[in-house]
Amino acid sequence: MRYIRFGVLSTAKIARTQLIPAMFRAGNAEVVAIASRGSKVHEVAAALQIPKAYESYDDLLKDPDIDAVYIPLPNYLHKEWVCKAADHDKHILCEKPAALHEREAAEMIEYCKEKNVKFIEAFMYQLHPQHERVREIIASGEIGDVKLMKSSHSFYMKDRVTNIRMDKEMGGGSLYDMGCYSIHAACHILQTEPIRAHALAEMDPDTNVDVSTFAHLKMTNGVNVMFDCSFDMANRNEYEIIGTKGTIKVPYAFRPDKNEGGIGLIVVTCDGVSREERIPGDLYRLEVEHFSNYILEDGEPFNTAEETIRNMRAIDACYESIQTGQVINIKQ
Asked: Residue 135 CA to chain centroid, in angstroms?
């Protein structure tokens, strides 16, 4: 059995609590090194049983025993360290959103192609099998023709002083942090893309960061998509598909791992009669294994470069709409 040997750039919470444990559970990966600026990285490495700890990202990238890196750095640092990782022939799994705008994402992806390394934006939610089941139900015609998709993703942020999500220069904002999921899910589930965007936001008066965003997308197939994302509301991570005959609700759409046992739940309602389907899935392990197989077998990525660029294009349009108050046509 071949393994992909991972290095992790940062001791970010998502790395410590989700991705690194998933690398240990994966059947084709192992984590061999972690890096962070400062001596605390050695404590983290010891606690997580990671063999090597580096006090600089550059030193980790120079390690010849590392095949790929996971990058959970703040959004504004993604391009810099994706390109540096590519310079050292490391394949890259980069946290979402990949960049701060479409042009930056396209430049990163092109650079990785030039350096002949694999790059994937880490939209892990899509690998949970509940979403493939939703697409099967839609294709079966059970809920009729799809007319509308609604999506909500939020949590109430208590600490707004030190949280980097509230720093505009670092790529903070609810649209970057959570709205990106709703946009991606609309394209992934409906197999289409947005052609128009209209959004408005509630901005933090001190940081000028969108703490809540409310948006409407018109898709190429005529379906309407409405989504909201927020640092100012209770925990939600859900979507609903509304058709001419019925509805599909997915209450743990983006973080089914927070449900007991990682169980995804699908609720289908037609003619006032509902049924539930419960679907298990080890979300982050699936992400690590898919990415590792993409490298080992030169297979298909679970999230393509085109999907990454498309998502950033829609995010750009939403921010432009927030700034101008206008409906924005999205160039294809």
From this structure: 19
CB–CB of 40/67 below 8 Å? Answer: no
Q: In this structure, are 62 and 146 located in the same domain?
A: no
Q: pLDDT digits over 4-52, tens only?
A: 999 999 999 999 999 999 999 999 999 999 999 989 999 999 999 999 9
The structure tokens listed for 257 are 């791992």
What is the C-alpha separation between 156 and 38, in angstroms, rounded? 30
CB under 8 Å, gap of 24 or more: what pairs does 200-207 form?
200/321, 200/322, 200/325, 201/174, 201/175, 201/322, 202/232, 204/160, 204/166, 207/166, 207/167, 207/168, 207/172
Give yes or no for a contact between 157 and 231, defined as CB atoms under 8 angstroms apart: yes
Non-local CB neighbours of 312 within 8 Å, separated by 6+ positions: 97, 98, 99, 101, 102, 104, 105
Residues 94 and 212 in one domain: no
| Residue span of the structural domain in which 140 resides | 128-286+312-329
pLDDT in tens, 218-277: 999 999 999 999 999 999 999 999 999 999 999 999 999 988 889 999 999 999 999 999
Report yes or no on 291 lying in a domain.
no
* Residue 246 parent element (H or E): strand 246-250
Alpha carbons 214 and 98: distance in angstroms, whole number: 21
Find the farthest-apart pair of alpha carbons in the chain and give their distance in angstroms, rounded.
Answer: 61
Q: Which residues are marked as active site?
A: 96
Find the helix or strand (DSSP H, E) in which 22 lies.
Answer: helix 20-25
Is the pTM for the entire model greater than 0.90? yes
Please give the Cα distance from 205 to 211 (Å, whole number).
Answer: 10
